[in-house]
Amino acid sequence: MVRGRRQSQRRKKLIILRGLPGVGKTTRAKNLCDEYARLGLEAEIFSTDRYHESTNYTKGNFQRNHQQNREDVFKALNRGVDLIIVDNTNISLWEMWPYIHMGMRQGEYYITMMELPKGYPQNYISINKLYSCCRHKIPKRKFRSFEARWEDAYNIWHVLNDSYSINRWEQCEEEWNVQ
């Protein structure tokens, strides 16, 4: 009887998408949301690109846009949205750390990272192909920068225990990090 009860309980999910621009993160996020919608469950995609599209790409706006995305994810976690997808490049561990930290503190979420393509960088896609697939106006040199900064993330614990990420975020006074 306990087994049946466990199977019937649905667990909320927080999915952190990772990948270079043009690899298909947004398409994957939309497909996941459609799957949830067919089940009558609430799903939301949170992408900093949404803010970048309405502002110019200056460094100040870039940082503010990422902060706004983190705030929106925090609010969705607190509302108990069934599926939350973070659709950013998430190339470095420190970029994923706040989202994973929020999900862990909230406690009701199964958290996973999803690399596109699966097994990147071993499953390599050329910069020229990514550049042609990317719907944003990102210079080719930026793709090379993303590729050079890529950090392997083995699991959420690898990210949460990353000392650089901890040091980078421990003094952050954004609402999600205030105790």
From TrEMBL:
InterPro entries: NEDD4-bd_p2 (IPR026302), P-loop_NTPase (IPR027417). SUPFAM superfamilies: P-loop containing nucleoside triphosphate hydrolases. Pfam families: AAA_33. It comes from the Eukaryota. Signal peptide: none annotated. Gene3D superfamilies: P-loop containing nucleotide triphosphate hydrolases. This is NEDD4-binding protein 2-like 1. It comes from Salvelinus namaycush. The lineage of its organism: Eukaryota, Metazoa, Chordata, Craniata, Vertebrata.
